Protein: protein-ribulosamine 3-kinase
Amino acid sequence: MTRFANLKRQNDWESSWEVWWVKHIKFILEREETIRGPYSEEDNQVLTRYLRPLESGGRSIEPALCHTDLWPGNVKYRLDNKSPLAHSELELGLFRNPQYPLGKAFFKEYLKKVPISKPEENFDSGNIMYMIRHQVCLASVYPNEAKLRDIFLANMRILVDRVSAEENEKKRAEENKNPFEVNVMSVTKNVKVLAT
Structure:
């Protein structure tokens, strides 16, 4: 157990980043829900959508010791007592948060040193997911700031909409496949032509 400000935080080792993240995000979301009550389960489910591809199809992530609380007033400290071994991109979630902008130059410099994990097309959505983690923690640290919940829920809705659009696109692609389409080259490749 470590801390985020005055709040305890789950930080046990797991062999899979997805397993660690699910336990961690569940822990911090449940804590926030005790303050303000429940919200849509659909919103909650998108927070794991972009994890499995990081560790499937022969891909893996190398755990990195992450600060997880880099903001302009805290950048001078390399690590602190709550630094987890995590996916390196977890660090970037806070960089995206409008409350703590470190600037695009800092973001680009970070990515020069630590490349984007594959599949790269999931990077932006994964970054929003990691930003939401920071926003949920802030919403818990400042229970009297109801707008903090509105902010992270709005960002969850962005992911819900993206997931919905991705699933609709996949469904359309499947529907547009012609089941009667035949690859002529594969059919004729081994056919002997009889001469008359």
The helical segments are 17-36, 41-45, 90-96, 104-113, 123-141, 147-175, 184-188. The first helix runs from residue 17 to 36. The domain at 2-188 is CATH 3.90.1200.10 (Aminoglycoside 3'-phosphotransferase; Chain: A, domain 2).
